[in-house]
Amino acid sequence: MLARVVRIAVVVALLALTVTLALAFRRDPHDIKTGTVLKPAPTFTLQRLDGSGEVSLADLSGKVVVVNFFASWCLPCTQENPALVRVYERYRGSDVVLLGVNLQESRENGLAYVQRMGMGWATLADDDGRVALSYGVFGPPETFFIGPDGVIAGRHIGPIDEATLVTAIETLRARAVR
Amino acid sequence: MNGRIAIAIALVALAGALVFAARPHDITADERIDQITTELRCPVCQGLSVKDSTSETARQIRDLVAQRVREGRSNAEIQAEFRAAYGDWIFLSPPVASWSGLIWLVPIFALVAGLVLVTGRLRTIDAPRPAEPSATQVAALRERVAREEAAEG
Amino acid sequence: MSAGDLGAAALRAALFLSLWGTGASIYAAWQRDARALASARIAAAIGFGLVVIAALSMMFALATHDFSILYVAENNARETPLFYSVISLWAALEGSILLWTAILAGATAFIAFRGTRAIPRLATTALAVMFAMLTFFLLLITTPAADPFARLALAPENGNGPNALLQNHPLMALHPPLLYLGYVLTSVPFAYAIASLILGEGGDRWLVATRRFALISWALLGVGIVAGAWWSYAVLGWGGYWAWDPVENAAIMPWLTSTAYLHSVMVEEKRSLLRTWNLALVVATFALTILGTFLTRSGVVNSVHSFSLSAIGPLLLGYLVAILVLSVGLLLWRSARLRDAGPIGAPLSREAIFLFQNVLFMAATLTVLLGTLYPLVAEAISGAQLSIGGPYFDRVEIPLALALLFLMGVGPQLPWHGASRATLERQFTAPIVAAAIGAIAALVTGTTALAAVLTYALGAFVIATVVQEFARGVRARRTLHGEDALAAFSNLLRRSGRRYGGYVVHVGIVLVALAIATSQARTVDAEQTLAPGETLAVAGYTVRLDAIRPVSEPQRDSIVADLSVTGNGASDHLRPALVLYPNSAAAIGSPGIGAGLRDDLYTILAAYDQRTFSWATIRMRVIPGVSWLWLGGAVVGIGALIAALPAPRRRAVRMPVAEVAVSAK
């Protein structure tokens, strides 16, 4: 009797192992659902890199806010920058706000990068990294989409492209209208 | 009798040493920081803990943990802050009270199942006093000794 | 004809020969046909030669920077030094599989010639299994799945160079080949086990035939793992030697089951019990090596070793499933014939201890297996991401390891069949006293963590039992043969190598356990930003930053921190560095290590002033006892060597009847 149980257990275990390993191929490394997604966006007040004042997330309630974490030492950030520039131009003056948050470098380095890459939107300094930690940032480039209700609707890890940006923004704007 | 006294003394000494090692002692702030950062996963590394990693992100997390400890937050509160931002992923050891906590059952189950299977195959012996061996038994013994020595070499 | 063409052609010819060999050996076993066996032998020999030629061709292509071959373009550059060019054979996926195949072909040839002479039918069937496996691997490297000789239409001017981590330390020459030898040689006992099941043999011949292979593969795997730990320590620069990384886990799982096997095999040899279990262990060990390969190369886990995603994942998974289905099917089919005659023995007998030890090893293996796979499962099913890392594995494995240490001392001291109370008292008085002394020694040296004190106590316990055994053995030889102590000692090792070599292995394991316990309990860290001339103090040592300077070499740029370390009688100059290879975005930390018998001084350059080199952030870690880890690994290897060497021929022993009557009591 015991032998029968052991046999069945072995067969079941092996089946489970095979199914597990086969399932493991389904993972998508860019789409991470845990953490701060679908939770209220942590508030922050950060200084601008060029020293011209500060920006507070609380002041932007009711708008669609795209927060992009970047750094000059981050190679994929330079790759995604043209897409960000185009999206910024497209939504300039509307209810969509693009914010850049500079990570883990001096303000001079960050500012030099911003000027070199032609980033016209508000770029802020997160000196001690606390804002990034509160958002659950893994590393630049990382982009968060905050809806008009102040909730993080989604995040994208890794360099982002124009299509993804526009789709996410338009989805959130449609929600605001309703 | 001497042997038994020696064993008794040795066991007492051993127990004493172990109790001393396991004694509860006041934990310093630095030790608390080490405790917490050993269990936090560095977000930008391959499975390293925040304590071990030399990356800037890990350093910033260590600073944050140190600040929270100074502010008097408990371990649970600090862990909750990181869980809110990163999810269970940030813990290198799954919290027991969660779905992933089921993994703690695996070693327990394996041990129990194994011990049950093994003890089912054992029996106790009564050891009769051996009699003087006969000539044929001696011959058989000799042969067996030779065979076993050959097998071991 | 270029090296690439030669290699590719050699592999394809080898594939054909392997197919031929499979068929020929099946026919030879089935029909007991000597000519078919002869042709299978030739196929094995020539096939091995061809795969070796292919491997050498790849090494030649790497050394001569032939960038028309894709593998060379991706893993080699003109600036790469010759040594690292050549060992880049195993730097990435395709080359690794080529190395694996070469070793497998060698094992196949060995069985074809040596094995089949000893036990023809069983070995020939095993040969067929080996050929079948060899065919699979040759298929992998002759198809786009993992073809190392795949060509580039347009050869680039310069290649990528090897992965930065893989050209930082000469240990890369040793760690993968040792590990692969260990992995691949587990296929020999497996092949014999399968052959035994196919032929329906009820006996233990397969076991005896593969005893040495099992021991050697276990030893190579173990030493390979220790070499990997050393690499992790000396190269990865995080200050540790084991991180429960998925690929580390993949290597230790077959080693754990292999260790269990080496012991339960003794029960089968002595008492003809546990046949099904031993067959299952052999299958499990081999299957775990394939699982390990799958986990490492399929891209399903992120790890330090991750090779890129490729089609090889599903193929390896399919291979693993086929092996499991075949083996488990055979085991279930034949299990009736292999059933044990009766109960195993008394609870306090050597057999029982070996069984408990097996349970502990299986619990340890299952924990590592499920701990590694669980995050995958959870994410695939629910999308939730979770981590299972060091803290979890440590909490489970350390108590299991302590229990195993205890059994390691108890097992060899108990007789087969069962022990009486008198035996127990006689055998364990000294070891228990030693355990107490060990615990006190731990406290005296400042090692006060509970697990560490236990390790010291149990380590002393085991050492005492080993000393006792050697003392008894020497005494017996002096009485029986009249040898002096030294001759008796060396003869114990030569003539009863399995037993006393095993004891040496146990001593090595104790050293490893003490190293781990000491380093985990007493490592101290300190990190500070220093300007040149400033110092940092930790654990009685003082580190002074002398200079920070850039160093340029053809294949890499580095920033080196010159450190002087004094204190506790030490005087060292250490040079931690941050190394930048052109093909890598991030700098690799290279630690400066001052190794010592008591402490290792481990220094890391964490950050530095990139503009004017006016400051550097230095982390200094004092790690006591870690050198015993490498020492212990070497002792384990030596012990395994002693156990594996055949005993010299001897003349018969004459024993007077009266002495036999006395010693039979």
Estimated helix fraction of chain B: 55-70%
Spatial shape of chain C: globular
What fraction strand of chain C? 5-15%
Q: Regions of chain C with pLDDT < 50 over 5+ consecutive residues?
A: 304-308, 659-665
Which percent band covers the strand fraction of chain B?
A: under 5%
Quaternary structure classification: heterotrimer
Cα-atom radius of gyration of chain C: 27 Å
Low-confidence stretches of chain B: 125-129
Number of helices of chain C: 21
Mean of the pLDDT scores of chain B? 85
Please describe the biggest sheet of chain C, giving its number of strands, its sense, and whether it closes into a barrel: 6 strands, antiparallel
Helix content of chain C: 55-70%
Mean pLDDT of chain C equals: 89
Largest sheet of chain B: none
Helix-strand makeup class of chain B:
mainly alpha
Radius of gyration of chain B from CA coordinates: 28 Å
Structure explained in plain terms:
The complex is a heterotrimer of chains A (178), B (153) and C (665). The N and C termini of chain A lie far apart (65 Å). In chain A, strand 1 (45-48) and strand 2 form a beta hairpin. The mean pLDDT of chain A is 87. Chain A is α/β, with parallel strands linked by helices. Chain A contains 5 helices and 7 strands. Helix content of chain A is 40%, strand content 21%. In chain A, strands 2-1-5-4-3-6-7 form a 7-stranded mixed beta sheet. With 153 residues, chain B is an all-alpha fold. Chain B is elongated, with a radius of gyration of 28 Å. Residues 125-129 of chain B have low confidence and may be disordered. With 665 residues, chain C is of the alpha+beta class. Chains in contact: A-B, A-C, B-C.
